[in-house]
Amino acid sequence: MNNIKEKIKATTLKQRLAVGAVILVLIGGATGIAVHQNNVASAKAESRQEKLEAAKKSKADKTAKEKADKEAKAKADKEAKAKALKVEADKKAKAESEAKAKADSEAKAKAEAEKAKAEQQAQAVAVQQAEQQAQQAVAQPEQQSDYGYVPQPETPSAPSNPAPAQPTPSNQWGNASETEQKALENGNSVSGYDEGLNIYEK
Q1: DSSP class of residue 1?
Q2: Spatial distance between the Cα atoms of 199 and 180, rounded to a whole number of angstroms
Q3: Whole-structure pTM value
Q4: N or C: which end of the chain has fewer CB within 10 A?
Q5: DSSP readout, 38-77?
Q6: For residue 199, what are the contacts with CB-CB under 8 A and spacing of at least 6?
Q7: Do residues 67 and 60 make contact, with C-beta atoms less than 8 angstroms apart?
Q8: Buried b (16+ CB within 10 A) or exposed e, 80-89
Q9: What is the 3-state secondary structure (H, E, C) of 140-201?
Q10: CB distance 173 to 196 below 8 Å
Q11: Per-residue pLDDT reduced to its tens digit, 103-132
């Protein structure tokens, strides 16, 4: 330190001013350089921070977009699945409706066919019975004519000693005609034997 002081004292004022100016220039330059470097570092830091924030924002935006796309895709898949299920349900309901309509139609046709068959069978039975009755009605007189026997209704048996038949007052001459009856009543005789009248000559 003493040597430096002695050297400073040995210099002139001009030299001292020159040295002071140089020192001031060096200090100013160093300060400027330091400030510049600080500014550069700050700018770099800001730029780096901005880049980091931008990258972070970009990543967040990308993540949000991916999430939105994923949600939209899930929603679309869900809607498509619901639509497919609805189409399948409608298809199944239509098939069941068609099957039910077909079964009802077949059952109705079967019932109508059975009804028609029963009616035909009833008509056939009725026709057969009518034919049998007609054949029996025709065959019965033929049998009677073949055997020469006509069945008579049963009458109660006559007593062993029947009472003599009394002539009816209206016609005592048997089967005589009205002209013959008058002739017999007048005392005239009817000649011969009339088999139809069953009257002898009186």
Answers
A1: -
A2: 10
A3: 0.34
A4: N
A5: HHHHHHHHHHHHHHHHHHHHHHHHHHHHHHHHHHHHHHHH
A6: 173, 174, 175, 176, 180, 184, 190, 193
A7: no
A8: eeeeeeeeee
A9: HHHHHHHHCCCCCCCCCCCCCCCCCCCCECCECCCCCCHHHHHHHHCCCCCCCCECCCCECC
A10: no
A11: 999 999 999 999 999 999 999 999 989 888
- Residues in contact with 192: Cβ distance below 8 Å, sequence separation at least 6, in sequence order: 201
Evaluate whether 199 touches 190 at the Cβ level (below 8 Å): yes
Q: Residue 172 has which token pair?
A: 């005592």
What is the DSSP track for 97-129?
Answer: HHHHHHHHHHHHHHHHHHHHHHHHHHHHHHHHH
Cα separation values, 112 from 104, 119, 122, 156, 175, Å? 12, 10, 15, 59, 71
Provide the β-strand partners of residue 13: none
Q: At 69, list the tokens.
A: 């796309």
State both tokens at 146. Answer: 């073949």
Both structure tokens of 51: 């880049």
Radius of gyration of the chain, Cα coordinates, nearest whole angstrom: 76
Encode pLDDT of 150-199 as tens digits: 455 455 554 545 555 554 444 555 555 677 666 666 665 544 444 444 44
Record the tokens describing residue 40, joined without a space: 């550069």
- Asked if residue 173 lies in contact with residue 184, where contact means CB atoms within 8 angstroms, the answer is yes
Cβ atoms of 174 and 198 within 8 Å: the answer is: yes
